[in-house]
Amino acid sequence: MPIQQKSAHAAINCNYFEVFGNQLKPQIMAQINQGMQGESYKINKRKTLKIHKLQSISFDRCRIKGNLKVT
Prior knowledge:
By secondary structure, the chain is an alpha+beta fold.
């Protein structure tokens, strides 16, 4: 009988993800802001999106929502 290989991807327990995310929210926000604050993205010839900061982040089971301050 052949031995079955286990998947390399582990299933995420969404309840743990939500609790973990909410507990580390300040650290997660700081890391995100450090990495993307001041970044600019060209939208078209006349418009550029500039990211100022991540204002808030929320975790709802396996979903993450964030509010950015941009111009």
